[in-house]
Design brief:
alpha/beta; Rossmann fold; 3 domains; nine-stranded mixed sheet; 19 helices; magnesium; metal ion binding
C-alpha cells in the first residue's frame, strides 16, 4: 500500500519512540554522511535533482563503538557541482552505513551508556537508516495538483447554486501580466509622483515575493508571519536584502512576535502592518522592495510611510485607469490561460440543472470580452445573475448601494430593481438585497473566489454559504512536495527533531556538543526545505512546522480549496469532500485516512486529462 509523506513521518516517529531502549548499530562520525543541507533545488530546476541526490545519500563508514569523533574532520557539504565521492568500506545489503564484519554491541534497557557521545551518534545513525528504509518506491509521486482539498465536509449533492468571482477564478492570467503591472506602476511612480529616474533600472523580479506576506509600513520591512503571529527567521527583507535575525529582534523589542494590535486587521489592512492577500499584489510587493532598495543603496533619506502610500497608489492607478483591462482584452490568447477548462465546468454545471451567478469587481466590458473568449458569445445564458463592479468586500457588508441595471451598451438605467432577471447585467448593489431578491441562502450556495478576505470571509462567517478558494500556487507547491529531495529532507528533518526531543535529557558537556551539531543541521535542513519553494520566503503555506498566517485564513474562510476551477471536473456533482483527520498533538497518529493519497482523491483524473 502506498503511503503519504505525512504517514511515513508518523510511522517513523512511533518507531523511534518504541526503540528507545534498544541499542543501535555502531556510531558514525557526526561530520559526515548527512543529507545535504546546501543543495539548492527550485521547482524550475527539479529535473537536476537526481545527480545531487546520489551524492547526498548515506555512504560513509561507521566508527567503532566508543570512539570519539575527530573535531578536525572536515564536514561534507554537497552541492550540485560536487565531484563523486570515493566509496568507503563495503556495506551489507539492506543496512546502509553498516560496515561488514564489525560486531555489534548492546546495552541493557537500564544501563547508563558508557560513552554518551557514541550512544547519541549511534541513535542518530539508526534513525537516518530508518528514514531511507521507511520511504517506499514511488512515495514521491502521490500528490496531484488537480486534487480538491477539504477543510470542512462538503456534500456537492446539497449544493444547488454555484457563484463565482471573475479574476483568478473564472479567468486565470499568465504571469506575464505581473511584469506589465510592475512596469506601468514604476512609470507612474517616476512620472506622476516625481521619484528619481534611476528607479527605472529596477526591472521586475519574477518569484521574488509570494502571496500572503506582511509589510511593516513604518519600518519598510517585508516579512512572513506564521499562524501564531510570529515572524519566520530569515524571511524579513528591507528592500532587496535580507535583514539579519539579530536586527529583526532588535527592531521588534527582542521578540519575533507581532502583537495583535499592530498586525493587519480583518481585511489585511492594519494601521501599521498590511497583509498582501491578492495575487495582483505580487507586483506591488516587488515594486515596494525595489524602491526601498534604491533609496537605501543610494544613501537617500526617505519616509517609508510615504513610499508605501505612493507605491500603493501607483499600482492602483494601473487598475483604475484601465491599463490592465486594455492589456488583457488586446491579447486574450497570451494573458488568459485554460479558458477551455472554465467553459467545460460551466457546461457541466448547467447540464446538471445547477443555477449559476457571477459577482465581480471588474467592469462589464472587460468581463464580456474575456468570457466570450473562453466560453463563447452566449456566455450570459449560463448565468442566472451577473453583477459587475460590485465593490467587494463592501458588497457583502454594506446595505446602502442599490442595484442598477446596464443596457446592452453598458449604460446605466434608472428604474428601480425589484427582481434579478436572467440575461440582464447589474452593477453595484449589496448582498442583503441579493439574498432578498434571489432567495439563495445558506449551504445550498457554494461561492468560488481567490481572495480570502474580499471574496470568502463574510460569506462564510456571516451568511453560512459554502466557500471554495482558488489557490493557483498549489500547482507549483505540489510539484516541489512531490520531489524525492523534498521527501527525504522533510522526513529526516522530522526524524531529527524527534530524536532531539527524545534524547534532550543527555546534558553532559560532550552530549551538549552533539546536540549543538544536531541543532545546526536542523537549522540548515529548515533553510533548505524553505528554499525549495522560494529562496526568499519559502512556501505559501508553511513556516517550517507551523502553518503560515495565510494558511490559517485559508482554513478559516474556505470549506474547500484547489489550484483552479477546472479541478471540479475530476469529481461528480454528488461527491462528498471529507477533511483528513490528522492527529492533534495529544493524539496518537493512528488514523487510517493518513494512508489516503492525493491521487486517490481525484476519481475522474483520467477524464480531466483529456480536456487538457
Amino acid at each position: 500500500m502506498t503511503m503519504s509523506v505525512k504517514a511515513l513521518g508518523a510511522i517513523l516517529t512511533r518507531t523511534l519512540w518504541t526503540k528507545g531502549h534498544k541499542t543501535p548499530p555502531l556510531a558514525r562520525s557526526p561530520k559526515v554522511n548527512r543529507l545535504s543541507t546546501t543543495c539548492s533545488v527550485s521547482a524550475a530546476g527539479a529535473g537536476r535533482e537526481k545527480g545531487c541526490e546520489e551524492k547526498c545519500k548515506v555512504g560513509s563508514s561507521d566508527r567503532p563503538s566508543g570512539e570519539v569523533p575527530s573535531s578536525t574532520e572536515p564536514a561534507h557539504r554537497c552541492t550540485t557541482g560536487d565531484k563523486k565521492r570515493p566509496t568507503g568500506p563495503k556495506e551489507a545489503a539492506g543496512a546502509p552505513g553498516v560496515v561488514t564484519g564489525v560486531k555489534r554491541r548492546s546495552h541493557t534497557s537500564t544501563a547508563v551508556p558508557a560513552n554518551p557521545t557514541s550512544y547519541l551518534w549511534a541513535r542518530y545513525n539508526e534513525t537516518k537508516r530508518l528514514v531511507h528504509d521507511v520511504i517506499p518506491p514511488g512515495a514521491c509521486n502521490l500528490l496531484n495538483s488537480s486534487t480538491i482539498y477539504a477543510n470542512n465536509e462538503v456534500d456537492l449533492a446539497e449544493v444547488d447554486i454555484y457563484g463565482f468571482d471573475y479574476d483568478y477564478t473564472l479567468a486565470l492570467y499568465s504571469n506575464a501580466l505581473h511584469s506589465m503591472i510592475y512596469n506601468k506602476a514604476r512609470d507612474f511612480l517616476i512620472e506622476h509622483f516625481k521619484y528619481p529616474e534611476a528607479i527605472r533600472k529596477y526591472d521586475y523580479i519574477p518569484n521574488f515575493a509570494v502571496r500572503g506576506l506582511h509589510y511593516d509600513i513604518q519600518k519598510g520591512l517585508l516579512m512572513k508571519i506564521d499562524a501564531f503571529h510570529y515572524i519566520e527567521p530569515g524571511t524579513v527583507y528591507r528592500g532587496l536584502s535580507p535583514v539579519p535575525d539579530e536586527e529583526v529582534l532588535q527592531l521588534n523589542g527582542g521578540t519575533y512576535h507581532v502583537p495583535l494590535q499592530e498586525d493587519s486587521g480583518f481585511y489585511g489592512k492594519g494601521p501599521k502592518v498590511k497583509q498582501f492577500m491578492d495575487i495582483f499584489s505580487i507586483p506591488e510587493m516587488t515594486l515596494l522592495a525595489a524602491t526601498n532598495d534604491f533609496f537605501i543603496t543610494s544613501g537617500i533619506e526617505y519616509d517609508p510611510v510615504h513610499l508605501f502610500k505612493d507605491v500603493s497608489e501607483a499600482v492602483g492607478m494601473v487598475h483604475l485607469k484601465g491599463y490592465m483591462y486594455k492589456w488583457v482584452m488586446k491579447d486574450l490568447d497570451k494573458l488568459i490561460q485554460r479558458g477551455e477548462e472554465t467553459a467545460a465546468v460551466l457546461h457541466r454545471l448547467v447540464s446538471h440543472g445547477k443555477k449559476l451567478f457571477l459577482i465581480t469587481n471588474s467592469p462589464f466590458s472587460f468581463v464580456d470580452k474575456g468570457m466570450t473568449h473562453m466560453v463563447g458569445k452566449e456566455w450570459r445564458d449560463f448565468f442566472d445573475v451577473v453583477i459587475v463592479q460590485a465593490d467587494k468586500p463592501h458588497f457583502f457588508t454594506d446595505c446602502i448601494k442599490p442595484f442598477r441595471r446596464l443596457d446592452g451598451n453598458g449604460d446605466l438605467q434608472w428604474e428601480k430593481i425589484n427582481s434579478l432577471d436572467k440575461g440582464q447585467i447589474y452593477k453595484q448593489g449589496n448582498l442583503f438585497d441579493f439574498l432578498r431578491l434571489s432567495g439563495w441562502r445558506g449551504s445550498r450556495v457554494l461561492y468560488f473566489g481567490d481572495h480570502l478576505y474580499s471574496d470568502l470571509a463574510d460569506l462564510m462567517l456571516r451568511h453560512g454559504w459554502r466557500t471554495a478558494a482558488i489557490v493557483p500556487e498549489l500547482e507549483q507547491e505540489t510539484q516541489v512536495v512531490s520531489t524525492k529531495r523534498y521527501a527525504l529532507s522533510l522526513t529526516w528533518l522530522q526524524a531529527l527533531t524527534g530524536l532531539m526531543e527524545r534524547l534532550q535529557t543527555h546534558r553532559d558537556p560532550a552530549s551538549k556538543m552533539v546536540f549543538e551539531e544536531w541543532h545546526n543541521e536542523r537549522e540548515e535542513l529548515m533553510v533548505m526545505t524553505k528554499n525549495l519553494f522560494n529562496p526568499q520566503f519559502g512556501s505559501l503555506f508553511r513556516t517550517c512546522h507551523n502553518p503560515t498566517y495565510f494558511s490559517r485564513r485559508l482554513c478559516r474562510f474556505s470549506d474547500i480549496y484547489m489550484a483552479s476551477l477546472s479541478c471540479l471536473l475530476n469529481y461528480d456533482l454528488s461527491y462528498t469532500f471529507y477533511p483528513r483527520r490528522t492527529p492533534l498533538q495529544h493524539e496518537a497518529p493512528l488514523w487510517m485516512d493518513q494512508l489516503c493519497t492525493g491521487c486517490m482523491k481525484t476519481p475522474f483524473l483520467e477524464e480531466m486529462s483529456q480536456i487538457r
